[in-house]
Amino acid sequence: MMIEYKKFVSLSNMCFLGFLCVFLFQEGLQAGEFPIADKVMIQKSSRKLYLIKDEIAFRTFDIALGIRPVGDKHEEGDFKTPEGRYTLDERNPDSEFFLSIHISYPNSDDRNEAQRKGVQPGGAIMIHGQPNKPTKSETYYRTQDWTNGCIAVSNSDMIDIWLMTGSHTPIEIRP
Q1: The total number of structural domains that make up the chain
Q2: Alpha-carbon distance 50 to 43, whole Å?
Q3: Distance CA 122, CA 114 (A)
Q4: Taking a C-beta distance cutoff of 8 angstroms, is the pair 46, 60 a contact?
C-alpha cells in the first residue's frame, strides 16, 4: 500500500509528538510544568532565539535566517527575515518543515511601506524546523542561513519552542 509522502510526513510528525507526550507523561512531567514564554526575542546578528518569561530568558536556541540576513524585510522575494514586533499567531504541524509557527508579518506598517514602494510585502514568515524533504546536507542546515526569510531551528529545538509558546505570544525580531 502506497502512502502519499505529505500524508506520511504529517502522520510521522503526529506520531513523534504523540510519542513525546507519552514519554513525558510516563516520566511524571505534565504539560503545565513546562515554562511558557510570555515573549520570544530574536537577535539576528548573533543568530539566537530566546524564550523569555518575566523579563528573563530561560531558553536560548541557535537559528538560521533568510539567505540575505542583514537588514529588514521590505518585499516579497528579498530573502530577508523581518525586523520588528509581531505575534506568533498560527501553528502548523503539517508544513513542509518539521512543525511551524506563523509570525504575524506583515503588520500594518510593513504593508504601508510596501504599498509606498509599489511592491508586495511578502508573508508566510515562520519559525520552523528542518525540511521534511532535505535537499542539502545536515551540516549545511546547521551552519548556513538557508531560509527564504523564516527563522529555522533544529527539529528537537522546534519541539521545545512548540511546547513552550502559547497562542499569540509576542515576538520581537532585532537586527
Answers
A1: 1
A2: 8
A3: 9
A4: no
CATH of residue 137's domain is 2.40.440.10
Give tens-digit pLDDT for 61-107: 999 999 999 999 999 999 999 999 999 999 999 999 999 999 999 99
Instruction: Find residue 131's DSSP bridge partners.
Output: 97
At position 140, the amino acid (one-letter code) is: Y
Pairing verdict, β 151-152 and 169-174: unpaired
Q: Determine, yes or no, domain membership for 29.
A: no
Q: Within 27-164, where are the H helices?
A: 108-117, 138-143, 155-163
- Residues 168 and 175: their CA atoms lie apart, in Å, by 22
Q: What is d(CA 94, CA 73) in angstroms, rounded to the nearest whole number?
A: 26
Q: pLDDT tens digits for 4-28?
A: 434 444 444 554 555 444 444 444 4
The reported pTM is 0.81
